[in-house]
Hints:
binds flavin mononucleotide; 11 helices; two-stranded antiparallel sheet; alpha+beta
Amino acid sequence: MNETIDLLQKHVSVRQFSDKKMSEAQVKELILSAQAASSSSFLQAYSIIGIEEEELKRKIARLAGNQPFIAEGSHFFIFCADMQRLNKLAKKRNVDIQLTLEGIDATLVGTVDASLAAQNMTIAAESMGMGVCYIGGIRDAIVEISEMLELPEYVFPIFGLVIGYPKVRNDLKPRMPITGIYHVNKYNNETDRVVDEYEEQTKNYYAHRTGGAKKHSWAESVLSSLKRLPRTETKPFLNQQGMAKK
Ligand SMILES: Cc1cc2nc3c(=O)[nH]c(=O)nc-3n(C[C@H](O)[C@H](O)[C@H](O)COP(=O)(O)O)c2cc1C
């Protein structure tokens, strides 16, 4: 349809990278692209931490669900929700925003702002021929990783983004049929048939991608993740950071 839509619809996560590194100028373009995203009330309620120390990257890769490829891309960024800048500003000017900072909505605002910035960075990187993989695995060790990054109050990490030049690209992962996720005028509860159809399609996809080794479907894969990753440390950690209390 056009180059942008083509790029969006060709997205695949990349988990194997070549040794090629991006330049400082490219890193700057990625950060500027991230910053160009929309931001709720223009709060810019996020921070991006570039992990440049190789040993720190490897430690994070181990803690984040033991995913060594995190340290094998050109760059690794951690996206955080960040209300600390706004907290400091309010304190300096004697404005009481405590109720807002402690509310779950501030957590959503920071999470949404960071996610939009990350997706902008993703598209920018993909438009330069690079590949990315989001790393929610950092929340497996949210406490340890936050300590390593010395995150202050009102800041928490949401995901990492590993970016580099692809060595291997997976085939496109088939998305759910449109009727499974797009509802018209009201919520449609009748999506079971669509999910069944999708099961067949995803079974074939995984079997093909793994040369027949994996026989699982989408449902088996997502249910296993949901069971394995309750991440019950997240809420107490957010509360410790002063957030998601109300
Ligand atoms: C917030 C978020 C966290 C993710 N965390 C991980 C991760 O820790 N490890 C990983 O290998 N992939 C991770 N992914 C990538 C997804 O598995 C991937 O996007 C999904 O399976 C769809 O595949 P595709 O991106 O290749 O189309 C994450 C994606 C998102 C959006």
